[in-house]
Design goal:
heterodimer, A: 250 residues, alpha/beta, 6-stranded mixed beta sheet, 8 helices, B: 10-stranded mixed beta sheet, 10-stranded mixed beta sheet
């Protein structure tokens, strides 16, 4: 699904990612953990195609294809989805209309006609039920005045609508209370299949009790310094990151 | 001969041609003297600091087209709101076109200024209202001096006019360059309600300069919704001066949609003579190339307990320039005034310019007044967010700009007009918006 080789990236000439190697296969869940400032969100943004980040070395292959020169929307069309840590407010565009535009633009890129209105409505109904989203919520302006929890739930709703091959969840657990966390995690678990893959970026182990990873990677100073199974997350929860920092910095 | 000299010297011939006995003969004569003294405004005038008329005054305009020109409805249908039933007052090169118009005298008067100025049955209204609220600036005086034709609308009390009224001015290009000076008077009496759409449309690339003046009087509890659709050809310029006098408990809104033309100057003036009323001034400007749009607004709060709401949005591309000069005056007596003004702009190019200047003059002490002005580019983080959902850059930008102007469209009360404006905006922004926002 995703192969990252020796990835270096910088923003405004400041080097942030310094040689990331990561392979994610279809059907897998990978967790990327690490202390603040280690480059987790940068990695997510670089995969999604944010232009401010410059890839200075290395490659990102999606299903064997180098996606470095693709614009963010082209990556989305190929099945990359990023759940934002801080979803952006877009006044004047309702959740429903935003999703209609996103889905139909993706279909257009694939040479498909617009999704028929009744099919779209049915899909919206199913997916909003999955995430326990009130229908009224869907006619509100995107993210405008949403609580932290509503924003995150809305991100996963969008993921459900777009059915990506590779979903990257950037700190989706931050700002969620325990009920919202359970709803969001439940949604992600239902969307998981043998054909898609999920990368969960998180600072804490909490979310990983609900979305159980196959692999856990620790990112520190722009490199993956340790990888393991789900037990690594528990170890980090108990012992914090200091022992890893010491190991690396030694 | 300069345009000013040409206008002044042609006044006598004009007066002879119209009607020396007319009641407004003295008004016209006085007005030409004022124009002669004041002339056209220049950048030295504070209110014209950012708008120069030089480029539009240089043409040798015909002032009185010789021949009557006709147009086929099928050729100009697209300039009308034709999916609903409306009254229409249509002019071609300044002359009334009876076969394109649909006027009425059935309980209300929707007809012509030329007949109102002559026929005895309109005399009282003309005496009471003509040139009463209009200002005495050079350009308005010039229009007053040559006032002869335009729309005359009088809605007596307790009438809700079911059909919107469209006032449309066409110029055919049969003259190499044409100057038009339409004069409209709209008087709405107690408890009555009317909706009006005004448009100026040049059909060729020949230069046209329109110096239009509209007087609107909203009497007690009247509701007037006025929509100006400005989407003219690249060599057409418009100076549009509107003067609104409101009486107690009336509601007047003016929406100005400026999407085209070479130079557009809107002078929109509200005078609130009474308590418990509100005034709404909304505008959307989307221009490019070297187009210039200037909104010059005034809201004068004279008595207590009134509101005014101004919301102007502008999107400027290429080398276009915009001006927003919004003045709010609150008299000492006008306590409990709520006056809000906002002007937000997006510049899409390094060469586009906007000059935004809010002015508040508040003499009362128990008021709520606010003004805000923003000038910015499109939000990059919002663009990335939309792109990451598969929406291409061009569509994402269009959607953001569309959403930006959306607030102003919300208050358009004629659904078909709203839809039409939506389409024009989508078209201007080069996006296909497959839904209503």
């Amino acid at each position: 699904m995703l192969q990252i080789k020796n990835l270096h990236a910088s923003v405004e000439d400041k080097s942030i990612l310094k040689g990331i190697n990561l392979e994610v296969k279809a059907g897998e869940v990978h967790a990327i953990m690490g202390p603040n400032g280690s480059g987790k969100s940068t990695l997510a943004s670089v995969i999604a195609g944010k232009e401010e980040y410059e890839v200075t070395d290395g490659t990102i292959l999606l299903e064997g294809e180098d996606i470095e020169d693709l614009a963010a929307e082209e990556r989305a069309h190929k099945g990359v989805f990023l759940s934002f840590q801080y979803p952006v407010e877009i006044p004047g565009v309702s959740v429903t209309n935003f999703m209609k535009t996103a889905i139909n633009e993706t279909r257009k890129a694939k040479g498909l006609p617009d999704m028929p209105a009744n099919e779209m409505l049915k899909m919206i109904r199913e997916k909003s039920e999955l995430l326990e989203i009130d229908r009224k919520f869907l006619s509100r302006s995107l993210n405008e005045g949403f609580s932290g929890g509503e924003k995150k739930r809305n991100e996963i709703f969008q993921m459900a609508m777009l059915e990506p091959k590779l979903a990257i969840l950037d700190e989706t657990d931050s700002g969620l209370d325990i009920d919202a966390l359970r709803i969001v995690a439940n949604g992600v678990n239902k969307l998981k299949s043998k054909d898609n893959a999920v990368i969960v970026i998180t600072h804490y182990q909490r979310l990983l009790d609900y979305i159980v990873p196959d692999f856990v990677h620790v990112l520190y100073k722009g490199r993956i310094v340790k990888s393991g199974g789900k037990e690594l997350a528990h170890e980090l929860e108990e012992k914090g990151y200091d022992w890893i920092k010491e190991e690396v910095d030694a | 001969m300069s345009l000013k000299e040409k206008l002044v010297s042609s006044f006598l011939a004009f007066e002879n041609q119209v009607d020396l006995e007319s009641k407004i003969h003295d008004v016209r004569s006085e007005a030409i003297k004022t124009f002669e003294a004041k002339g056209f405004p220049t950048k030295k005038d504070e209110a014209w600091k950012y708008t120069s008329l030089n480029s539009v005054l240089k043409h040798d305009y015909s002032l009185f087209p010789k021949q009557d020109n006709a147009l086929e409805y099928s050729d100009i249908k697209k300039y009308f709101l034709d999916d609903i039933d409306t009254y229409k007052i249509v002019f071609i090169d300044g002359k009334y076109s009876s076969n394109l118009s649909q006027t009425t005298h059935d309980g209300i008067d929707v007809c012509l200024m030329s007949s109102a100025l002559h026929k005895p049955k309109y005399q009282l209204i003309i005496e009471n209202y003509f040139n009463k609220v209009a200002g005495k600036e050079g350009l308005t005086s010039l229009n007053t001096a040559f006032s002869k034709e335009g729309a005359y609308i009088h809605i007596p009390k307790n009438k809700v006019v079911a059909k919107p009224i469209q006032i449309v001015h066409f110029s055919t290009g049969n003259e190499a360059a044409l100057m038009l000076q339409p004069r409209n008077l709209i008087v709405v009496d107690e408890n009555s309600h009317v909706q009006i759409i005004e448009r100026h449309q040049s059909l060729t690339d020949n230069p046209v300069l329109t110096n239009s003046v509209t007087e609107i009087v909203a009497n007690k509890r009247a509701i007037v919704d006025y929509y100006k659709v400005q989407n003219d050809n690249i060599n057409a310029s418009l100076i549009d001066s509107t003067f609104v006098e409101q009486k107690r408990e009336s509601h007047v809104s003016v929406h100005t949609f400026s999407f085209g033309g070479k130079l557009t100057r809107n002078n929109l003036n509200f005078y609130q003579n009474g308590e418990y009323m509100d005034s709404t001034l909304n505008g959307v400007t989307i221009i490019g190339d070297k187009q210039h749009v200037d909104h010059n607004t005034l809201v004068h709060h004279i008595e207590p307990n009134c509101e005014s709401h101004q919301d102007y949005k502008g999107i400027f591309n290429d080398s276009s320039t915009g001006v927003f000069n919004g003045k709010v005056v609150v008299n000492k007596e006008a306590q409990k005034t709520n006056a809000f003004q906002s002007n937000n702009n997006i510049l899409l190019s390094d060469k586009a310019t906007i000059n935004s200047k809010p002015q508040l003059e508040i003499f009362a002490d128990d008021v709520k007044c606010s003004h805000g002005c923003t000038i910015g580019q499109l939000d990059e983080s919002a663009l990335f967010y939309m792109k990451s959902r598969g929406i291409p850059e061009k569509e994402a930008k269009g959607l953001l700009m569309y959403a930006f102007s959306n607030n102003v469209l919300k208050s358009v009360k004629i659904p078909e007009l709203k839809q039409r404006i939506t389409k024009i905006i989508a078209n201007k922004l080069g996006v296909n918006i497959g839904f209503d926002l």
